[in-house]
Amino acid sequence: MGLRIHFVVDPQGWCCMGLIIFVWLYNTILIPKVILFPHYEEGHISAVAILCFYLCSLFCIASLVRASVADPGKLPENPKIPITEREFWELCNKCNMMRPKRSHHCSRCGHCVRRMDHHCPWINNCVGEDNHWLFLQLCFYTQILSSYTLILDFCHYYYFLPLKKDNWDVFVFRHELALLRISAFMGIIILGGISGLFYSQLIGIFT
């Protein structure tokens, strides 16, 4: 079944998504420029490390876009209720529409969603029956990218051999320590938050 496009008009959600995209862009541009490419040129790492980083980054942003625009399970205005399932449907007291049980009304989106888990401002969308697996994918790839970024930040100062050539005329290299500390700080915050959310989701699914 193809994914239906779902777009939520919510300025708060746009701001949250914009912040996430900024963090993604920051690390996707900074880490290769400061760590991966210089160490590759001096033979400290292989091209596989660069390829893996860009693949993780691509999977992460692709899963973010898919989770944010996929229909979470929005109920149609006039749903067709099978006769055998009418006892499992109920009336929503907010939008006056019939909905199956375990559905919830999202006040931010303005409609009911089948098996709604929560409304996530970071993807500007609800997490429901049809896009829950996409949300889990996003959490998984975000954990991988954040972990990889933190490992590279650590290895740059404590494991890799010092770089022989630095271009001190470039702003990035003049402020390398501060920029990488910001990257590490963002990585720790995102990894901690996403890991807790991801594993709480898994526990909820299994139980």
From TrEMBL:
Q: Which Pfam families match?
A: DHHC
**Molecular function (GO) terms listed?**
protein-cysteine S-palmitoyltransferase activity
- Annotated TM spans: 12-31, 43-65, 138-159, 179-199
EC numbers listed for it are 2.3.1.225
Report the GO terms under cellular component: endoplasmic reticulum; Golgi apparatus; membrane
Cell compartment(s), UniProt: Membrane
Palmitoyltransferase DHHC domain: residues covered: 89-205
Say which domain of life the source belongs to.
Eukaryota
Q: What class of enzyme is it?
A: transferase
Acyltransferase listed as a keyword: yes
Instruction: Specify where it is mainly localized.
Output: membrane
Alphabetically ordered keywords of this record: Acyltransferase, Membrane, Transferase, Transmembrane, Transmembrane helix
- In the record, which residues are listed under signal peptide? none
Q: Which InterPro entries match?
A: Palmitoyltrfase_DHHC, PFA4/ZDH16/20/ERF2-like
- Which GO terms of type biological process are on file? protein targeting to membrane
Comment text on domains = The DHHC domain is required for palmitoyltransferase activity.
Q: Which family does it belong to?
A: Belongs to the DHHC palmitoyltransferase family.
Instruction: Supply the name of the protein.
Output: Palmitoyltransferase
- Look up and give the organism this protein is from: Odontophorus gujanensis
Query: What lineage, starting at the top, does this entry show?
Result: Eukaryota, Metazoa, Chordata, Craniata, Vertebrata
